């Protein structure tokens, strides 16, 4: 998830690019605009889903977070930038209330530092994007074998 | 004499960034400001120097909830400038696309943004825990709206299939019929929505609005008609700026619109409904009456019922259009750009959206003016709040706060396509 025109907010899209060529065949890569209600539609009948998105909490840029959202809510303070009525944390909790969560929903957040219009990815976030792509690929492979 | 201040730093469950500040002395509201502090977005300036055919896609980016409205007002304005009229199946497809947007937008507001206020929940997530079946119905309805926009518009957010003169590609009748069964379910779900919201508890408030909406000779209005008001105004779209003016107020980054002669006015579902009840289908009229609505509704809290009636109308109209649709000979009328001025005004889910463009002889935009519905309703929102707070000034802090937020959300205000947040404080003066 992310916005290609808002600096580090695009990190999810960059990870999708990295994964496009290497992710396990059981896991299609979907680039999503981030509308929470559409996310619910997308993941509701899936077994295992990985979501990657930018985070913003004041931590050092490139910090990687990993949450098992099927177990507990993700911290909304990390994912509070959304141009939609229901963002990622809201979509997860609405799904939980309606029993529409995937059996396993893993959320990776990557701390960004600049979200300005027209900016590119910062160096630290570029490095983190490669790391998260590798982790997701590894986790997806293990999940596919289960 | 006691005094107090109500301060809303960030409005929640609205589109964009705004707040509210109120000063009360005794039983009188001495100052009230709807603060819109979201930065100006300069779209009118972006459009200068761009080609006429870029306007629908550029302006669609103004809002993620009502991009179709921006595309419709832009295309109508350009066609007005070039003397082109779009009729037949292409006109019908535009109405169908608008049905999709109304279904999406009204459902989002009814079920996820506004209903929690009436039922005492802080948000839709808490409401979903107590009323999962209701939320399931809302999500399914919204999905059907998305499907219409996706099929006719090319994708569900910021559609890409709309062009000046028509569409880039027209759907086949068979493609449209894939929506038919879901829309039949949606008709029933919309009827149930009207029944459900009619039973909500509505705060007492009757306002003497001047309603302003489009009125068409034989349709409930989406794209075309004359601009009329409950105080006798009846004008062509091209005369809009002779009657309305926008003003800057120091505490808001959104311009305030007013009628030059009479000041505040109201646009949106309440105005459309009250000026066009006779243009609704019999089924929608029957649902409205059964819900206890008169032909004119002046209680802004009942806008949730009116939205539900319009939701039912949009489902029924979409079915009618699909049944009657014939694949067009061309996907778009030919356009020969030339120098001119074009005006467009269509009914966005939240009310009238006005566009005016000046075009040079190369088809390049030299000037653009856009007046969105929320800008037009700001004065009415403030007037509602003044009256509401004045009548409920003895309420404790929390219920008064709740009532103020609920009253603002009556308007489904679209401060922008940005996010939402609300922290409200009432402090002793």
Q: Describe it for me?
A:
The complex is a heterodimer of chains A (146) and B (429). Chain A has 146 residues and is α+β, with helices and mostly antiparallel strands. Chain A has a single domain, classed as Rossmann fold (3-Layer(aba) Sandwich). Helix content of chain A is 35%, strand content 14%. Chain A has helices at residues 11-20, 36-43, 88-97, 123-145; strands spanning 48-55, 64-68, 104-111. Chain A has a three-stranded mixed beta sheet, with helices on one face. In chain A, helix 1 (11-20) packs across helix 4 and helix 2 packs across helix 3 (88-97). The longest helix of chain A has 23 residues, at 123-145. Chain A is globular, with a radius of gyration of 14 Å. The longest helix of chain B is centred in the N-terminal third of the chain and has 32 residues, at 88-119. Chain B is globular. In chain B, helix 4 (88-119) crosses helix 5 and helix 4 packs antiparallel against helix 14. Chain B contains 14 helices and 14 strands. A four-stranded antiparallel beta sheet of chain B has the order 3-2-1-14, with helices on one face. In chain B, strand 12 and strand 13 (365-371) form a beta hairpin. Chain B has a single domain, classed as Cytochrome-c3 Hydrogenase, chain B (Orthogonal Bundle), CATH 1.10.645.10. With 429 residues, chain B is an alpha+beta fold. Classes of the chains: A alpha+beta (146), B alpha+beta (429).
- In angstroms, what separates the terminal alpha carbons of chain A? 26 Å
Helix fraction of chain A, binned, reads 25-40%
Total domain count of chain A: 1
Q: Give the total of beta strands of chain B.
A: 14
- Give the name of the CATH superfamily of chain A: HybD-like
* Mass-distribution shape of chain B: globular
The CATH architecture of chain B would be Orthogonal Bundle
CATH class of chain B: Mainly Alpha
**Largest binding interface between chains:** A-B, 20 and 26 residues
Oligomer: heterodimer
């Amino acid at each position: 998830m992310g916005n290609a025109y808002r600096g580090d907010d695009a990190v999810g899209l960059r990870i999708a690019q990295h994964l496009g060529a290497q992710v396990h065949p059981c896991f299609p890569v979907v680039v999503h605009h981030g509308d929470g209600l559409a996310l619910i539609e997308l993941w509701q009948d899936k077994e295992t889903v990985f979501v990657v998105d930018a985070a913003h909490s004041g931590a050092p840029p490139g910090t990687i977070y990993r949450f098992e959202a099927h177990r507990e809510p993700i911290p909304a303070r990390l994912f509070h930038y959304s141009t939609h009525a229901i963002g990622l944390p809201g979509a997860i909790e609405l799904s939980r209330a309606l029993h529409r969560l995937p059996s396993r929903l893993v959320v990776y957040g990557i701390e960004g530092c600049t979200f300005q219009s027209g900016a590119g990815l910062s160096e630290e976030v570029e490095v983190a994007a490669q790391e998260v792509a590798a982790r997701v690929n590894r986790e997806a492979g293990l999940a596919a074998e289960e | 004499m006691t005094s107090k201040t109500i301060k809303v730093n960030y409005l929640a469950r609205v589109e964009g960034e705004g707040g509210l500040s109120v000063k009360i002395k005794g039983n009188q509201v001495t100052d009230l400001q709807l603060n819109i502090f979201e930065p100006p977005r300069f779209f009118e300036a972006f459009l200068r120097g761009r080609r006429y055919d870029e306007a629908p896609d550029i302006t669609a980016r103004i809002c993620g909830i009502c991009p179709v409205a921006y595309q419709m007002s832009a295309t109508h304005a350009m066609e007005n400038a070039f003397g082109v009229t779009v009729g037949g199946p292409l006109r019908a497809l535009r109405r169908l696309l608008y049905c999709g947007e109304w279904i999406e937008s009204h459902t989002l507001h009814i079920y996820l943004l506004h209903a929690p206020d009436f039922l005492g929940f802080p948000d839709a997530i808490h409401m979903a825990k107590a009323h999962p079946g209701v939320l399931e119905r809302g999500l399914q309805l919204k999905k059907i709206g998305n499907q219409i926009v996706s099929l006719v518009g090319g994708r569900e957010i910021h559609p890409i299939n709309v062009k000046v003169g028509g569409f880039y590609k027209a759907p086949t009748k068979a493609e449209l019929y894939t929506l038919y069964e879901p829309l039949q379910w949606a008709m029933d779900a919309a009827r149930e929505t009207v029944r459900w919201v009619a039973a909500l508890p509505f705060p007492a408030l009757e306002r003497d609005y001047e309603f302003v909406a489009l009125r068409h000779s034989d349709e409930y209005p989406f794209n075309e008609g004359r601009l009329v008001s409950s105080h006798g105004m009846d004008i062509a779209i091209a005369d809009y700026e002779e009657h309305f003016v926008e003003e800057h107020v120091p505490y808001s980054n959104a311009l305030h619109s007013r009628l030059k002669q009479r000041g505040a006015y109201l646009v949106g579902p309440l105005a459309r409904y009250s000026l066009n009840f006779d243009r609704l289908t019999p089924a929608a009229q029957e649902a409205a009456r059964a819900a206890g609505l008169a032909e004119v509704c002046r209680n802004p809290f009942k806008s949730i019922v009116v939205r539900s009636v319009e939701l039912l109308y949009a489902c029924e109209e979409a079915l009618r259009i699909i049944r009657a649709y014939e694949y067009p000979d061309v996907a778009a009328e030919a356009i020969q750009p030339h120098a001119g001025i074009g005006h467009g005004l269509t009914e966005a889910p939240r009310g009238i959206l006005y566009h005016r463009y000046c075009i040079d002889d190369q088809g390049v935009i030299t000037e653009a003016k856009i007046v969105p519905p929320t800008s037009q309703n700001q004065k009415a929102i403030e007037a509602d709040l003044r009256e509401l707070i004045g009548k409920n000034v003895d309420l404790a802090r929390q219920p008064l706060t709740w009532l103020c937020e609920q009253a603002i959300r009556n308007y489904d205000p679209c401060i922008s396509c940005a996010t939402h947040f609300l922290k409200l404080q009432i402090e002793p003066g």
